Amino acid sequence: MFFYDIWNIKYLSKFKWNDLTGEIAYKSVVREQKLALEISAAKRERDFYLSKVDKSRALISIQERINKVLVHRLFNLNCPDNKVTP
User: Which top-level group of life is the source organism from (predicted)?
Assistant: First the structure.
């Protein structure tokens, strides 16, 4: 607190110390709630991003397997000496 805040408190009539501490406590609670909201939003964004990364990895893996099978079949078609396997 600053000197002028205390000086004003001395000369305010019907002022209660609980009014000031109550306001400080209220601001603290509001700040904590805002912080909790920001943290939960960041967690949701992180989880969304990680789910997209996992989905992308799975799709890349599937595409690589498909490409491997297609290359294998193409190689077998171009080389009649090899036996064709389904």
Answer: Eukaryota
